[in-house]
Amino acid sequence: MASSTIISRKMIKLLSPTPPSLRCHKLSFMDHINFHLHSPYAFFYPKIPQNYSSKISQILENSLSKVLSFYYPLAGKINNNYTYVDCNDTGAEYLNVRIDCPMSQIINDPYNDAVGVVFPQDLPWSSSLNRSPLVVQLSHFDCGGIAVSACTSHTIFDGHSLSKFINDWASTARNMDFKPSPQFNASTFFPLPSETNLSSTLPTTHPSKRHVSRMYNFSSSNLTRLKDIVTKESHVKNPTRIEVASALVHKCGVTMSMEKSGMFKPTLMIHAMNLRPPIPLNTMGNAVCIILTTTVTEDEVKLPNFVAKLQKDKQQLQDKLKDMKKDMMPLYTLELAKNAMNIIEKGTHDVYGCSGMTNTGLHKIDFGWGEPVRVTLATSKNNNFIFMDEQSGDGLNVLITLTKDDMLKFQSNKELLEFASPVVESTK
Fold it and tell me: Between residues 204 and 163, which one has the greater pLDDT?
């Protein structure tokens, strides 16, 4: 396994200090009830133009300093009970690291776990307390390629916010005159309740077995094939890319579970749904609700049936939220989270998380030296499917995380391999 050596570690200060009026950033109820971990993304660039190779770190540091002036909570400190961020301009942690192998050894490894070497130690799944809300690592490989990793506190950012920040940082790196326009006003939509025992609202998690990840690609043509299967055999109309792909990987998960136990086990899939809109698109923070989709029979697992069920659950949630006051959304989201946790704790269902980071531009992040060949996350501690845009075309990449033993069975599923291919990138 490749090892890393820290070349330098520093705090990147804001180019412009945060005004005293913005010193206390109130966290929203949605922020508070979120899991207090870091969200980890890595962007791999194997071919760096010669005119950039000697100044990459300086470009990243200068642009990060400026963009932090707009994203000032990322340079502060979260207080102990997760109710506000002290925007004290401490800065973001920035590491330069040397990796003692070529990039190809990391991104062509069958398991995604190998990419853990490009994330800061003790991150990404550590607590957000006592660590900068933003930790950046620039990794230098023996081959001359680099990886840019950003770990942001999930207390401050959801996936939408993180993608907005990364895009704005890249835009600033290419043009220092660029001016981001984030709004840290989520607490006006989702205020913290004044008379709630906040410590009791947080769902609990338990240590789990070791998980591993693999990335698969669904080509545009295979997604079209899946959509045709779903629409021809049901009354489902206009299924999305993620709906049909998540139905397939869910079905493969059920098959794997049945091979292991010899019997069908009910499932729970927890989908994350962005609340922007109705919340404004430039609102930073956590603005996500969850959709709970269960199956209790093998028939419900079939692709057309599962997509129909997913669409119905999604529509019911949208209808529920449509007429709901915004300040009631966190309580409803919390209730859904508690329902999910109750199912998880009973152990009656196989549980999968599912989220989509598509249409965010993350697959084309260009700091000035071109687009990445791979965008990925570190391996989490739970079963989940994370969908991302592929680097070219209209297909999807999905990062699948399961226990090590389950992955051995899952990755040999013939139906999975009929529609999806393991992702291996050429860095030559």
Answer: 163
Of these residues, 25, 154, 250, 363, which one is catalytic?
154
Domain made up of 211-422: CATH architecture = 2-Layer Sandwich (3.30)
Determine the length of the chain.
Answer: 428
Distance CA 85, CA 96 (A): 27
d(CA 135, CA 137) in angstroms, rounded, equals 7
- Give the residue from 155, 178, 159, 154 showing the smallest Cα distance to 63: 178
Q: Strand 92-99 to strand 134-141: parallel, antiparallel, or no bridges (unpaired)? A: parallel
- Fold equal for 4-189 and 211-422: yes
The CATH architecture to which 4-189 belongs is 2-Layer Sandwich (3.30)
Q: Which among 314, 276, 342 has a CA at the least distance from the CA of 30?
A: 276
Judged by DSSP in three states, 40 sits in strand
Nearest alpha carbon to residue 138 among 58, 71, 37, 74: 58
Q: What angle do CA 142, 145, 149 make, to 5 degrees?
A: 110
Domain boundaries of the chain, sorted by first residue: 4-189, 211-422
> Is 154 in the active site?
yes
- Given the residues 86, 313, 327, 366, select the one marked as catalytic: 366
Which residues 6+ apart lie within 8 Å of 342 measured at CB?
none
Secondary structure (DSSP) of 343-412: HHHHT-SEEEEEEEE-SSSGGG--SSS---SEEEE---SS-EEEEEE-SSSS-EEEEEEEEHHHHHHHTT
Q: 């490749």: which residue's tokens?
A: 2
Condensed to tens digits (0 to 9), the pLDDT of residues 266-286 reads 999 999 999 999 899 999 999
Query: ∠48-54-57 over CA atoms, to 5°?
Result: 90
* Active-site annotation holds for 160: no
Distance CA 107, CA 220 (A): 22
Q: Measure the CA–CA gap between 356 and 272, rounded to whole angstroms.
A: 8
The CA distance from 344 to 118, in Å, is 32
Beta-bridge partner residues of 403 = 211
Q: What are phi and psi of 276, to 5 degrees?
A: -105, 120
Write the pLDDT tens digit of every residue in 95-135: 999 999 999 999 999 888 889 999 998 887 777 677 899 99
* Nearest CA-CA partner of 161 in 61, 325, 282, 279: 282
- Rounded Cα distance between 366 and 72, Å, is 22
Contact (Cβ atoms closer than 8 angstroms) between residue 419 and residue 225? yes
Contacts of 39 (CB under 8 A, 6+ apart): 124, 151, 152, 153, 154, 157, 159, 162, 377
From CA 52, how far away is CA 388, in angstroms rounded? 28
Owner of token pair 């991302």: 388
